[in-house]
Design a protein that fits this description.
The complex is a heterodimer of chains A (499) and B (370).
Chain A lengths: L6 H4 L7 H11 L4 E3 L2 H4 L16 E4 L3 H14 L3 E4 L16 E4 L6 E5 L4 E4 L5 H8 L4 E2 L12 H7 L6 H4 L2 H4 E7 L5 E5 L10 H5 L8 E8 L1 E2 L3 E9 L2 H13 L6 E6 H11 L9 E9 L1 H17 L4 E4 L3 H12 L1 H8 L2 E4 L9 H15 L3 E6 L4 E8 L6 H18 L18 H4 L2 H14 L14 H15 L10
Parallel strand pairs in A: 2-4, 3-4
Antiparallel strand pairs in A: 1-2, 5-6, 6-10, 7-11, 8-9, 8-10, 12-14, 12-15, 13-14, 13-17, 16-18, 17-18
Helix pairs in contact in A: 2-4, 11-13, 11-14, 15-16
Chain B lengths: L9 E2 L2 H14 L3 E4 L19 E4 L4 E7 L4 E5 L4 H10 L2 E2 L13 H7 L6 H4 L2 H4 E7 L5 E5 L11 H4 L9 E8 L1 E2 L3 E8 L2 H12 L5 E7 L2 E8 L1 H11 L2 E3 L3 H6 L4 H4 L6 E5 L17 E4 L4 E5 L4 H10 L3 E6 L13 H14 L15
Parallel strand pairs in B: 2-3
Antiparallel strand pairs in B: 1-4, 4-5, 5-9, 6-10, 7-8, 7-9, 11-13, 11-14, 12-13, 15-17, 15-18, 16-17
The chains are: A alpha+beta (499), B alpha+beta (370).
């Protein structure tokens, strides 16, 4: 099943003559940058999941809200699909262009409009980088909590579209918990204010509905986020284990002791090795697993909690527990984790990052399952795990230049996600469904549930012009997926069930 | 050590509920959905036109279906009394972080989700919707559907779980919900400081920018009431710094459940809930004086007991960045919830038409046309 838009499975898209669309947009939007030459559009052909590429019909780079509104209204009138893109760092091909569609790039909306230290909010345009918000808030002792690993580059608009997470979610929540208001434009070009500067708004919680909706309900044009006071202190403990399962159980022990760490991360042997080779973070390369546990808050409480967590880790069988001596070592411990993806990337020509979330109690079963799948498919898998909140990032190592190996990696990834669903988890914790996991949606949801998602979509975009083909699969796609799965499951599993 | 989830008593009445819904859909009978029926005062009356509405009770569909304290997750059927859920959590040293109000022993989890009301801890811990992980919903065809799940992070599909919070049952019948739970704080200490409102607000603004363990702040009758929660060290240090007199921790449940004299005293003047940015200035309406106001949520939720011009009040709240809800007794002709701007109202109607095409779920409970 090809990942690119497939009219047979994803539905027919309107076919408009590119020259006519271009002429119409140029007439209505004479001052807007519009790209249509292949070499100009090439940089926009993929997002962070670069194995999937497609050139759009046109790339629009508006500078003003009026241009966005007019662009949407024209695309609506012409029946041209619109894919919205922020910084293009997404990992699920959520911003993968459509050949018959306009790619709406919001990177020029990069102004921080207001930091209000009294209200503890920041009002920003969607193209503002995640980290830039915290940098602008820092002089007031405030910060924006969600911190995806791509926070240097990713935009807040993309964070809202994907409901991005990070390493501090268990304590501080996802994007949905930290955005209080959004200005959006519908496909018809109508303005809506979702949420409010107060703590709630009348009517349905459309802000929650739009957060994580992958640009399929509207286009977010302005975002107000909540800022938190920077914790007085943050300290990190690193525990080594000679057994992955012991590390997994230790996570539960910490939570059971009534402690909610700011960050709680786990890495397996392959990931430890890769990170240590790359960053020299001082990780114990002989260990089967490490846990990084960050405790933040008021100094006195953090010291108490560090002592409690150390006791819990030792009782759980940690072979070594080290507390970062100072801020520099704390940063170094985190650098290993935050660079785990590129570190693994150095061990292999390509890697494929998965994003399932599981109940933590299922961790031993899932790790065993992943090891078995890894062996069966003949590809190595490194495991990086937001252990506190159950969000796993298995990294499948492969070489796209070897014929068929990408297919094998995809098939292995698909099985890992289905395993996550089977233990009561989900196919995506924070990266989104996008195009990448569109088939696995058929494993997680029943046809009638998918129909309810489509009904919600129809309330805002009945002609399905916003990001078609992403997030919610069609019945045709799911029946094809089911047929292929049944055919693959019937005989003994082959290396490439998609064959 | 992974705890085996305890078995809790309960019964699964989802089938009879689904059957009633299918029947209502066939007959186009509007359903008035109730759990303990303790929050009927909140919102509009369910409309029964052209057919008289029937009451659909979820009270028989009850019990905790899953609770694992180590996972910080509980799944509970809609008809479960809130008190029963909170007691089960307390046995494991955990709680609902958003501190939901109770308006009687019979109040249920379903009503808590449908009304979406949170208690004094809300500005610091989050609202009901922030703790919802997943939901089971019986749709207009009488099919029970699952959205979200039992894990902390889940972005598969649209977030229909949170959409149901505060939707007043107008989009479907909530049959079960999964919630994130949190450990109870190690220490709780409450304080009472005699301070004029302006000074209380100034101090709250200052403290708000620091990582202090404040978990509730309410001003009434010339005094700021504060609750500190956290580790013993930080609570003791903050208590030392802030000063004031000790206050009984029981003040907060009384505030949460509207049992304080401010809410119960005689007089039929309507009660208004003003949801405003916490630093919003006084609204400057002539009818309002300080004795008619209770400032909860560090100023973000203000209660007003007064006969006011609803239009003027709503305009003032809108200009301040918030909105006003008539909590009851609501004068004739006054909408309980602030009317929506036209474009937003249109998309509310679209959503209602898509998810409840026969208009059987609590029609009119939130707005006349939903």
């Amino acid at each position: 099943m090809n990942i690119l838009y497939d009219a047979r499975l994803d539905g027919e898209l309107p076919r408009r003559d590119p020259a006519e669309v271009r002429a119409d947009l140029a007439r209505h939007l004479p001052d807007m940058t519009l790209l249509d030459r292949e070499e100009d559009m090439r940089p926009f052909e993929c997002d962070g999941l670069s194995v999937y590429r497609a050139l759009p019909m046109l790339v629009a780079l508006p500078d003003t809200l009026d241009q966005v509104r007019t662009l949407l209204a024209r695309c609506h009138a012409l029946g041209v699909p619109v894919v919205t893109r922020g910084a293009g760092t997404g990992l699920s091909a959520g911003a993968l262009p459509l050949e018959q569609g306009v790619l709406l790039v919001l990177s020029r909306f990069a102004r921080i409009l207001e930091i209000d230290p009294e209200a503890r909010t920041a009002r920003v345009e969607p193209g503002v980088r995640n980290l830039a918000i915290s940098e602008a808030a820092a002089p007031y002792g405030l910060y924006y909590a969600p911190d995806p690993s791509s926070q240097i580059a990713c935009s807040i608009g993309g964070n809202v579209a994907e409901n991005a997470g990070g390493v501090h979610c268990l304590k501080y929540g996802l994007t949905v918990h930290n955005v209080i208001k959004a200005e959006v434009l519908t496909i018809e070009g109508e303005s809506l204010t979702l949420g409010s500067d107060a703590l709630d708004a009348p009517g349905f919680d459309l802000l929650a509905l739009f957060t994580g909706s992958e640009g399929m309900l509207g286009v977010v044009t302005e975002i107000t986020v909540k800022l938190l006071p920077q914790p007085e202190t943050a300290k990190v403990l690193m525990a080594s284990f000679d057994d992955v399962e012991k590390a997994g159980l230790a996570v539960g022990d910490i939570i059971e002791a009534g402690i909610i760490p700011g960050g709680l991360e786990m890495m397996d042997k392959l990931a430890i090795q890769a990170a240590e080779d790359f960053v020299k973070a001082g990780y114990p390369v002989g260990a089967e697993a490490i846990l990084l546990c960050e405790l933040d808050g008021v100094e006195a409480d953090v010291d108490d909690d560090c002592a409690r967590v150390r006791r819990v880790l030792e009782a759980a069988g940690a072979t070594e527990v080290r507390q970062a001596r100072d801020e520099a070592e704390r940063a170094l411990f985190w650098a290993g984790r935050k660079n785990a993806f590129p570190a693994v990337g150095r061990m292999s020509p390509d890697y494929y990052c998965m994003d399932g979330t599981i109940p933590r109690r299922a961790l031993p079963r899932v790790l065993t399952g992943i090891a078995e799948l890894s062996e069966r498919y003949g590809l190595r898998v490194a495991n990086v795990f937001h252990a506190g909140d159950g969000n796993m990032h298995p990294l499948i190592l492969f070489d796209a230049n070897q014929p068929g190996e990408l297919d094998v990696a995809e098939a292995l990834g698909g099985e890992i996600l289905e395993l996550c669903v089977a233990v009561g988890g989900t196919i995506t914790g924070e990266h989104g469904v996008g195009r990448e996991k569109i088939n696995q949606m058929c494993a997680q949801f029943r046809p009638d549930e998918l129909a309810t998602f489509r009904a919600a979509k129809a309330a805002f975009d009945p002609t399905e012009l916003l990001n078609p083909g992403k997030n919610i699969p069609t019945p045709a796609r799911c029946s094809e997926f089911k047929t292929i799965k049944q055919a693959a499951d019937a005989p003994a599993l082959t290396a490439n069930p998609h064959g | 050590m992974a705890t085996t989830p305890t078995e809790y008593p309960g019964q699964d009445a989802s089938q009879p509920l689904a059957e009633r819904i299918r029947e209502a859909a066939r007959e186009r009978t509007p359903l008035r959905i109730v759990g303990g029926d303790t929050r009927a005062f909140y919102g509009r009356q369910v409309q029964g036109r052209p057919v008289e509405s029937e009451t659909l009770s979820t009270a028989e569909h009850r019990g905790i279906t899953f609770y694992d304290p180590v996972e910080l997750v509980v799944s509970v059927r809609a008809g479960t009394p809130l008190t029963e859920l909170e007691a089960a959590l307390a046995e494991h040293g955990q709680m609902l972080g958003f501190e939901p109000p109770r308006f009687g022993e019979a109040g249920t989890v379903g009503g808590m989700i449908a009304t979406g009301l949170s208690g004094p801890r809300r500005p610091w811990a989050g609202a009901v919707r922030d703790f919802v992980l997943g939901i089971r919903l019986i749709n207009h065809e009488g099919i029970e559907q699952r959205f979200g799940g039992q894990v902390m992070k889940n972005v598969a599909g649209y977030d229909l779980s949170r959409l149901m919070v505060g939707a007043q049952g107008t989009l479907g019948v909530i049959s079960e919900v999964s919630l994130k739970v949190v450990p109870r704080p190690l220490t709780t200490h409450s304080l009472h400081l005699d301070l004029p409102l302006a000074e209380a607000r100034r101090r709250l603004a200052e403290w708000g920018r620091e990582p202090l363990p404040i978990s509730a702040a309410a001003w009434l009758d010339g005094a700021l009431h504060l609750r500190l929660e956290g580790g013993p060290s930080s609570v003791a240090a903050t208590r030392e710094r802030i000063g004031g007199d000790d206050l009984d921790n029981a003040f907060w449940p009384a505030l949460r459940d509207h049992r304080l004299d401010f809410f119960t005293r005689e007089g039929a003047r309507p009660l208004w809930r003003l949801s405003l940015p916490h630093r919003a200035p006084d609204l400057g309406l002539a009818e309002i004086d300080d004795t008619a106001m209770l400032h909860d949520w560090a100023g973000a939720q203000r209660w007003l007991r007064a006969d006011v011009d609803a239009e003027a009040l709503r305009r003032a709240c809108r200009e301040a960045g918030g909105h006003a809800t008539c909590y009851g007794p609501c004068p004739a002709g006054i909408e309980p919830f602030t009317p929506l701007p036209a474009a937003l109202a249109k998309y509310h109607r679209n959503l209602k038409a898509e998810l409840d095409p026969h208009g059987i779920f609590n029609p009119g409970r939130l707005y006349a046309d939903l």
